[in-house]
Amino acid sequence: MRRYGKHTDEDDIRSRPNRKGNRPRTHIRPKHEDAAEGMVLTVDRGRLTCLVEDRVVLAMKARELGRKAAVVGDIVALVGDLSGKKDTLARIVRIADRTSVLRRTADDDDPYERVVVANAHQLAIVTALADPEPRPRLIDRCLVAAYDAGLAPLLVLTKSDLASPDKLLEAYGHIDLPHVVTSREELETGGAADRVREHLDGKVTAFVGHSGVGKTTLVNALVPEDLRRTTGHVNAVTGRGRHTTTSALALPLADSHGGWVVDTPGVRSFGLAHVDPSRVINAFPDLVPGTEGCPRACSHDEQDCALDQWVADGHADPARLYSLRRLLATRERREGD
Predict the structure, then answer these.
(1) Which of 5, 46, 141, 304 has a Cα-to-Cα distance from 266 of 20 to 30 A?
(2) Which has the closest alpha carbon to 205: 154, 140, 161?
(3) Confidence at residue 234, expressed as pLDDT on a 0 to 100 scale
(4) Mean pLDDT for the chain?
(5) How is the chain split among helix, strand and coil, in percent rounded to 5?
């Protein structure tokens, strides 16, 4: 076996042949100090559409990012061809730290988290007052996800020409939930969009809602005409809407100062497997004061829970306590699996 001394020459050292004929791999990665900053607008089968300055650039994730995925709303660093021309492709080499992350799961038993949007400021929960019927339980789930992600919620009620919003608003009257009520006629004339836009200017707002509630119609009234999306209809037999939005898409708010709306696919469920059961109560601020008399480590669904008396004394709507306990029950079943 050949041994080398202290003063070996490079010619004396053997190197292994590289069968692939490419350069030897190294753990030293380039810093990409000249990378341009962009925002992810949408993701489609591994290709990410980003806004770099005033250009729309198609990009892919660099290998060195590993399993870390970029999502709509992410601020990223890009290198390569940033011209935005047809058949060009840039690379995303860095993903900036996120200020907020809105997540959901398919259901409460699904351990796989789906990131809906990153770096959003608020969540607009769009609900129809009729056709299809409103789903307060879905609203409550979206509120849990919003509060858990640190987003400010906004309730947008559509189709007020078909049903009164009073009963639904009464259920949330104790939590001072910001809301906007719109009709189909107002959507067509633009009056509804003006009132909703007051809550969106200068912010990134994710829109979520059950299929057929008019979410995409509302988004179309808020964004420039050339960026509007296809809308669908509600099935008269099932009462369900057709999914016309198949992927989340960030769109600039028309006539605003930096405002963005993120249109997301219609949901029929909003799983909360990622939310710790102890944090669910935060979505029910009207019930939180009533927990002061609860025993330590109260699950809020037991015999000595102080919330029963709190509601009986008229401090909150019994339907709100029922909704809280339904959510907690599904979370407990998941924990017990």
Answers:
(1) 46
(2) 154
(3) 43
(4) 85
(5) 25, 25, 50
Q: How far apart are CA 146 and CA 124, in angstroms?
A: 9
Q: Can you read off the two tokens belonging to residue 107?
A: 């259901």
Q: Distance from CA of residue 329 to its chain's centroid?
A: 24
Sheet of 179-181: strand order equals: 179-181, 152-158, 122-128, 204-209, 260-263, 249-252
Q: Which of 79, 73, 67, 66 is nearest to 42 (CA)?
A: 73
3-class DSSP assignment, residue 101: strand
Number of other residues whose CB lies within 10 A of the CB of residue 336 = 6
Here the tokens at position 244 are 């016309």
Residue 247 near residue 42 (C-beta atoms within 8 A) = yes
Tens digits of per-residue pLDDT, 59-92? 999 988 888 899 999 999 999 999 999 999 999 9
CB 255 within 8 A of CB 49: no
Compute the distance between CA of residue 120 and CA of residue 150 in angstroms, rounded to an integer: 9
Which residues, other chains included, contact 24 with Cβ-Cβ below 8 Å and sequence gap of 6+?
A: 18
The pLDDT of 201-223, averaged and rounded, is 91
CB 202 within 8 A of CB 259: yes
Q: Counting every residue, how long is the chain?
A: 337
Contacts 24+ apart (CB under 8 A), 132-138: 132/210, 132/212, 132/213, 132/234, 132/239, 132/240, 132/241, 133/239, 134/168, 135/210, 136/168, 136/171, 136/319, 136/323, 137/323, 137/326, 138/210, 138/267, 138/269, 138/270
Question: Tokens for 156?
Answer: 């947008």
Q: How far apart, in Å, are the Cα atoms of 49 and each of 39, 44, 250, 253?
A: 8, 8, 10, 18
Q: Tell me if the bond preceding 132 is cis, omega within 30° of 0.
A: yes
